[in-house]
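Thread title: Can someone regenerate the structure for this chain?

I was given the following input by a collaborator and told the matching C-alpha cells would be attached. They weren't. Posting the sequence so someone can regenerate them.
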Amino acid sequence: MPLELLSTQDARAYDEVVARMPITSALQGWGYGEARRELGQTPTRYLLHDAGQTVGALQLIRKRLVPGFDLLYAPRGPVLDSMARLPQLAPVLRKVARLNDSLIKIEPPFARSPELIPEQIGPWHRTEAEQPEHTITVNLARPESELLANLHSMARRNVKAAGKFGVEVVSGGAELFDEFWTIFTATNERAQLGAFPQAYYRTMLCDGAAHGGDAYIVLARHEGRALAGGFFLAMGAVTNYLFGGSIKDDRPGLGGGERKDAKAPTAFYWGAMLDARARGYRTFDFWGIPRQLDEGKHSFGVYRMKENFGGEKLWFPGYELSLNPLSPLITRGLRWRKTQNNLRKRGVPGDVL
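Best answer:
Regenerated them for you:
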C-alpha cells in the first residue's frame, strides 16, 4: 500500500510522533513551524501512515520564491521510522502540492559522513540545504569525566579558569530572553550577520516547549553580566544549539584597567553540554560548521571553538523534487540574488557557513 499523508491540527499528538521517531529533528516540531509564521510562511503538518500504522510525520513550510511560484520546504525533515520510505514519499507529496508549488525541498535528519552521501534517493536529487549541512555532535551519554577528557587541552584549561573566575552558567526560558538578545544582536553586528525579527525567536521559545518539544536559553554570566549565551531547540534525544554568541566585558577591572578574560564562551559551551545532559538529552548538536574553512571569516573562529569540545563531524544533505520545468531557472536566480545580498552585506559572495 502507498503511504498516506493525513493532515493534522493536533499539536500535541503531532509532536508526540516527532519526538519518538528514530529519524527526527526539532525543526519538524510544531513550535518551529509557528515561528516561521512570523516570517510570513505557512506550515502544514501531516502524519504519515502505512497500512494504518503511523510511520512518520512531516511539517511542510510554504515559502514564496517569486510571484506565482512557491517552495514547499521540510526543514530537517521528514520524520521517519526508516529512510527506506523516502522514495515512497515523493508521489504522495505531488498530490498535496498546489499548482503554484514549483519545488519541494527536504533535509532528511539522517546524519552521514561525506563519502556516504548519495546524489539521488529515488526521485529526490541532491541540492543545497537551507539549514547548515555540516555540524559537530557530541554523545552526552558518556560520563562527565569522559566528556571533559575529550575536550581539547586548551578548552579544559579554560573551563577550569572560568570556574576560578566565578563564571556562572544558568538555563531557563523567557526570563533570560533579553540578556540573550543583547548578546545575539551584538554578535550579529560584529560579524555582519543577518537576523530575523525578535518575534521569530520569542515565538520559537514559547511554542517550541508548548506541545512536547523543548526550547530554552543558556547563559554564562560573570559578576552579574551575561557574556555568552545561546538558544536551544530540542526534541526526543537531541538538543540543538541554533543561535548565540558572546560579547566582550568592557567594564573596568580592578584599578580601572582592562578586565581579565573570564573565558565565558568556553564556560557557556561546557555548561550547556552539562545542562543538556541533566535534561536527559543524549546528543548535543553544535549546529553548523563551515562548508569550506577560511581563516579570514568569522565562521572559522566559531568552528575552532566548537571543534574544541570533541564530537563527530556529520553532514545532513538536502534533496529536492521538481514540480515545474521552470524550477531550475528559479533556483539559479535565487542563488544569484543570495550571492548579491552576501556581497552587499559582507563583501563576500559565499554564505556564512
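The two ends are 41 Å apart (CA to CA).
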